[in-house]
Structure formats: C-alpha cells, structure tokens
Design brief:
The chain is of the alpha/beta class and about 140 residues long. It is about 40% helix and about 15% strand. The protein contains 5 helices and 5 strands. The strands form 2 sheets. It has a 3-stranded parallel beta sheet. A two-stranded antiparallel sheet has the order 3-4. The longest helix has 13 residues, at about 50-60. It starts with a strand and ends in a 24-residue tail after the last strand. The relative contact order is 0.21.
C-alpha cells in the first residue's frame, strides 16, 4: 500500500518549518507529511466527495487520456483539466504524457494520512500556538 502523508499547518508554521530545514536545524522524518495545506477547509475543497469519486474512478478504470476520463465521468474536459492540475499540484494525481501527447491521469497512492499538530512541541514550529492543557472543567 502506498500512502501520502498530508499535513495541516498555518502559513507561518510551514514557513518556519521550511526555514529550519533549510538552515539545517531540523531534519525531515521519513513519515512526515510531504504535502501541506493551510487549513482543513482547503483540504476539504480538494478532497470533496466529487473529487474523491474522481480519484477512485481513475484508480479503478485507468483511463488512457483526459478525453477518456471525460467520457467516463460525463464532465467537461476543461473542467477536468483544471481539477486534475490542482490535484497534481498537491501530488494527489500524476499527469503522464501518453501516446500522441495525450495526458494520462494516474493515482499514485492507495491511502492518505492527515497529520494535524494539536499541541506545541518544543523546538518544532516555534510559531505554532500552544493549546492549554485539557482539564475536567473544559470537557463537555
């Protein structure tokens, strides 16, 4: 099974993480997210029910072109092209060149894991706000 790890972090948190990596102060772990979103809402737009169905259809049917995918889905080719380019930008889809310059969409992952940091970890994401500890009075 091939899994894509996705992270949710603010722009400032992602910037601080990237700069720490660039300065050599932080190493990227093999299981850390490769793709980042600034909010759950932005992730939800990309992984809407309609787009998840599209991913499943591509994985199951393996269309050999964008035209073939349009025929399978009943969606306009231009609409599919925009959606696939957006998904490709996040690494959810790979767009390969096929015969005679056709674009062949492929789903490289079987599973997505979403990583959301809820608490501040000392030395990581210094700009991330720390959440107050949960107490009995804050439950419920």
């Amino acid at each position: 099974m091939t899994t894509l790890n996705i992270g949710i972090a603010s722009y400032d948190q992602m910037k601080a993480r990237t700069l720490a990596i660039a300065r050599g102060e932080r190493k990227v772990g093999k299981d850390e997210p490769k793709v980042w979103f600034t909010s759950i809402e932005s992730l939800a737009k990309i992984l809407s029910e309609r787009n998840r169905e599209l991913l499943l259809l591509i994985a199951r049917e393996g269309p050999d072109s964008l035209t073939g995918l349009a025929e399978l889905t009943g969606r306009e080719k231009s609409n599919l092209s925009r959606t696939l380019k957006t998904m490709s930008g996040y690494g959810l889809i790979e767009l390969e060149r096929g015969e005679r310059g056709t674009i062949v969409p492929q789903v490289p992952y079987d599973q997505l894991n979403i990583n959301i940091q809820l608490t501040h970890v000392e030395g990581e994401n210094e700009s991330a706000p720390a959440l107050p500890p949960r107490t009995a009075s804050s439950v419920g």
